[in-house]
Amino acid sequence: MEFKAIKGALKSRLSAGLHLLAGLAMVILLGAVAYWIVFGAVGRTQLVRFMPKVQGVPWFCLEGGREDLGVVMSFSSVLSPLAPKGLPFSPDLVDRFALLQRVAPDGEVSFAARLTGGDEVLKGGRVPEGLLLKDYGAATTGDGVFAVSSPSGEEMGFMAYREGTLFFSSTREGLEGMLRLSSGEGEHLLGGWDLEPSWGGHLAVGDGGRLVETYSSDGGEMTLEAAFRRLKGDGEGDFVPAGEARWRLRGTKMALLESLDRADWSALNFRVASPVALAMGFKVRDGKAQEVPFMDSIGRWLDSLGLSPEGKGSIVSSPVVLSLGGRTELLWLEMPGLLLSFPSSGKAGEELAKGVWEKLLLGAAAQPMSGYQSGGYTKLPFSMVAASNGEEAELGLISPNTIRESRNALPEGLMGPNRGWVYANLPELAQAVGDVMGIMGMLGLDDDNPFSDKASGDVRSVLSSMSPVLLVFQDAESGRMEWYNPPKR
Prior knowledge:
The protein is α+β, with helices and mostly antiparallel strands. Helix content is 27%, strand content 29%. Keywords: Membrane, Transmembrane, Transmembrane helix.
């Protein structure tokens, strides 16, 4: 094959892979931001009641404590292409806060806070030292409202102090709406946090009706609510929980989750790419494969391999685990590997392995893999595995020495009955994104980078600073999350 053709095929694969990684990174980012947020102060009036109702655009709302305000603000660089408005406040005087951000190019910001000091100064019509970030300014408008400006003199928004609470909005109209809410008038975003209300951290995310048509069966706005708390994180090993969360969907059910069946993962043997950057497991309900895009594609691919209807049915109805991690070699390049594991695929797994070597690889000879009777692996022109041991089957672009048993590579929190799970080792995911971007740059494929260079660096930097996180889907409307101390290296 000519180099141009190889480069074209490689460009297509890498571009698709990078866009998938980018999308997963941003989705995980919005979910994972929660576990960095607030775990202090309970038993106080919930500040979320001062956040106004949002319509027509996606939004997210956080309530937390002083130590977390800086973390929240650090995410503004990642979300800046969608939500450029920022906060002018330093965490120094903030005791507890609620933040509402509309995710749009001109997204309005609403902010309410209780302070640790400076209340008397604000009552006197002045701004206390340490409330605003360095070089930010505020000038009174004469009606108890301050106009806040950035170091360059650009108008940032308006703030006011009423009855022990500091209010801020990026628009004058927004501030007036918050003040009306504080007086019991107007329509608020949420009446309060009723999911684990005693926990210190809360998050709500609304899609503005944008995702419902694609992912929901009921219509309306999809709202995700979550409550979080830290745990002591004592113990040994790579998967010591540092915190936990409970979450639920409101206003809708996810059709995708309704298409999945419950599986007891503790009773299954399967393998993952290691070290794991990202892994997910699920089992499709009988007759629902067409409603799960990933499995629908696998079904069509199995047809092209000539699998029998019985074999295809067994593969599609088997639990499946997709993992990104380990390494694969593509000619002289190394990049993250990709592995599909089919627990309980039985004889159909042997038929799958045989079909890959005979149809896809045109009868190429497979190198034997320890513990597998059918199929095997090859290293040229790229690392690939297609093997079955009569119980489970493995298929992927991966070096066999970077495949590991799941019980040694994944947290115990997923090993139970559920509708599916996603485990993201965020520092490893950052490395995987960086590796793929580096290869694309080496091959002159930078035009297919869905991020700018700065945004790419911001995403990797934020992911690298986070801990591994596990999402478990208990049903179509609720689930739980755990995050862990960073793994020892």
